[in-house]
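Reminder to self: tokens first, then the designed residues, so the page reads top to bottom the way the pipeline ran.
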């Protein structure tokens, strides 16, 4: 997936606050220390014979509180329960690891042996991104969900989504899909009175992804538009900065 890196221009130095975005209650987030995974992070990866899935069981409170219960189900790991590690990617490039209890039927449990885990303070566009790894054999499976997604559907088959990367709400990744392989896509990023325009070629899967870094103290609404050369166009609106942390 092709990635374009650029930022909104500003006379100020951009803020890169890499703090924890979410809190995982009844498990491990308040105790874990950042670590570096010994593998390349790929949310779609699973070793042969393994799988990992995350399901939102119940939304207890919508954003900005964002309190919900989830279940994490695996296959292919029950015989390796003693050598398992559960990794979570948070705040872009910050990773955490814990040793997860695993039930006989493959559910990843919390420290109390419950099949349900609880997430809190999840905002719109924030992903829950994990990997289950057998540290003895390096087999792993990964899964990713966005409980409160920010999405838009275009005039044709194209679609867009925005994923927040930092606790500041200032760094985002925009993902576009549904274009033709090799299609030229004109991107405009719009914030207040400034508009940046770039042309990007869609990947062989018809996808485009790129990060946006907004200046310090940015807040309010931002917009991204995409116009494909084959005709599909799309507009995605989302809150940034402190506004993103409070968006309902």
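Designed residues (248 positions):
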């Amino acid at each position: 997936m092709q990635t374009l890196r650029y930022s909104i221009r500003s006379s100020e130095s951009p803020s890169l606050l890499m703090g924890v975005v979410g809190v995982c209650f009844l498990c491990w987030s308040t105790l874990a220390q950042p670590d570096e995974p010994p593998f390349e992070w790929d949310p779609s990866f699973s070793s042969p014979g393994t799988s990992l899935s995350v399901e939102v069981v119940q939304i207890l409170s919508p954003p900005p509180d964002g309190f919900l219960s989830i279940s994490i189900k695996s296959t292919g790991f029950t015989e390796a329960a003693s050598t398992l590690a559960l990794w979570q990617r948070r705040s872009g490039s910050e990773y955490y690891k814990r040793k997860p209890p695993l039930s006989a039927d493959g559910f990843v449990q919390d420290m109390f042996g419950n099949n349900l885990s609880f997430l809190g303070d999840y905002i719109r566009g924030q992903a829950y991104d994990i990997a289950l790894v057998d540290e003895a054999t390096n087999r792993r499976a990964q899964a990713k969900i966005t409980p409160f997604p920010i999405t838009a559907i275009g005039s044709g088959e194209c679609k867009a989504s925005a994923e927040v990367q930092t606790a500041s709400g200032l760094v985002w990744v925009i993902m576009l899909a549904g274009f033709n392989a090799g299609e030229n896509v004109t991107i405009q990023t719009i914030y207040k009175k400034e508009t940046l325009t770039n042309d990007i070629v869609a990947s062989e899967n018809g996808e485009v992804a790129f990060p946006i870094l907004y200046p310090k103290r940015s807040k309010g609404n931002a917009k991204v538009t995409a116009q494909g050369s084959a005709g599909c166009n799309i507009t995605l609106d989302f809150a940034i900065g402190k506004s993103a942390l409070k968006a309902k």
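The CA atoms of residues 80 and 134 lie 6 Å apart.
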